[in-house]
Amino acid sequence: MVRGYDVLKHTNHAKGALVRQVIIIGSGPAGYTAAIYAARANLNPLVVASSVEAGGELMNTTDVENFPGFPEGIQGPDLMTKMQEQAERFGAEVLYDDVVDLDVAGPVKKITLGSGGTHEADSIVFATGSAPRKIGIDGEARLSGRGVSYCATCDGFFFREKVIAVVGGGDSAMEEATFLTKFASKVYIIHRRDELRASKIMQDRAFKNDKIEFVWNSAVVDIIGDDAVTGVVLESTVDGTRSELALDGVFVAIGNDPRTHLVHGKLDLTPEGTVWVDGRSSRTSLPGVFAAGDVIDPTYRQAVTAAGSGTVAALDVEHYLAALGEAGAPAPDVAEIDGLPGADEARAETAKVNAA
Ligand code: NAP
Hints:
Blueprint: E1 10-12, E2 17-25, H1 29-40, E3 46-48, E4 63-64, E5 74-75, H2 76-89, E6 93-95, E7 99-103, E8 109-113, E9 118-126, E10 130-132, E11 148-149, H3 152-155, E12 163-167, H4 171-180, E13 186-190, H5 200-208, E14 212-215, E15 218-224, E16 231-236, E17 242-246, E18 249-252, E19 256-258, E20 289-291, H6 303-326, H7 343-355
Helix pairs in contact: 1-2, 1-6, 4-5
């Protein structure tokens, strides 16, 4: 243990509330890896895992074939369960709730939860990942859940023997289309160019699949249907001509955007919209606030790079807290979390929220 940690489990004098050493917001590979490292460093992290999307984007994935250590591949949800179990084994506390507000400007950081509770900590790891990008066209929002989907593994089952399309030309589109051929009678891949962005192996898999047909140089400009999807309007990106394609469903797989809405106006962002961090570190524009995973990464966005980024964040937190301890702050009221004023109440609140 780095010198100084024991004095950092303290109470907020004004309110008598427990101030944790670190709160991790997000439960994807970045959040859970940060939690594993922080827990092993005796920082007793609280992981706010989300009320409905715990586990992050990998919960919507089937085979993960490129995470080291699993030569036969592993299902995305199984991988996330293992990461969570590993973090909990070392003492991480996982809360199934959503952060709805953050007050991170001062030395003690405060989060407000959807359930109404609040928690405080000396440091925050912001690892909220990314959310599926929307095309932003007519019919998309109206028919979402009525034939428009952003998750093949969640909704593929509803399209048995149906004709559907996947929009996009990256790895996600190839993976979703290939997966969807297990259910659908036909899967179109609609891409706006005549060249895919996906990796060679994923492209080859899609090209070899008899149920997949590519629609090149086409933008989806409208999704049509009254109560359910009946088709899309396509516009040629070469000559602008329009045509209709009859479909029972549309899966949008055009990439992800970093989830930064909680920190707009609070943390600096990059021109790409990710949270700005200092060089290869996880240090954001505010002291004590660290960020990791897809929310800082406009380029690589892999489970394994997110996990590595979570490691960096936990190590940066350790150094930050150690420096705080060496500087003599905050007040060394009590040495252990158990028995701290506010600790029992905080744990009871976690149990109550998780049980709800
Ligand atoms: P991506 O690589 O950014 O690809 C997005 C695709 O959607 C691109 O082909 C892009 O077209 C298209 N697109 C973007 N905006 C569009 C719009 N408004 N309308 C129509 N098309 C649009 O995203 P991704 O496929 O989600 O992959 C993200 C990262 O995750 C990548 O690093 C990928 O390797 C990784 N990933 C890996 C696996 C795996 O290894 N099993 C699986 C899934 C994802 P353009 O090509 O014209 O830009």
